[in-house]
Write a structure and sequence with these properties.
Elements (H helix, E strand, L loop, with lengths): L7 E10 L3 H20 L3 E9 L2 E8 L2 H8 L2 H13 E10 L17 E3 L9
Antiparallel strand pairs: 1-3, 1-4, 2-3, 4-5
Helix pairs in contact: 1-3
Amino acid sequence: MNELPNTFHLSITGLRVRPGFGNQLRFRYHALRSYLQARKAEGVLHVAARRINGVEHTVTAWRDREAMLAYVRSGPHLKAMRAFHHIATGATCSFTTDHIPDWPATSPTGQMEGVVVGGGDRPQQG
């Protein structure tokens, strides 16, 4: 991946997988494919994923918003978004910044304005 410029577009997602073994398998399938897509995407600067208190998080940094949207709207990530409402709930936010935040002890999406997705509230920790 590339060296970070002075400012870039950051996307943070926190998702809680719905109960059920099948949902876990489908989530893992889509998450892995989306992660691999992100690592190869045009304009990507940083890709990280981590589970914190039962919530699956991703942090990605992009050259600009347009590069992020090109990734989100194509390939495995687009397929994951189409399946998402059946397998998880959560929140996502994106913004322009000059740094990548440290992984907090709690969900970064729980403390930021973002879009709640999947027909539920922001994922609760624990």
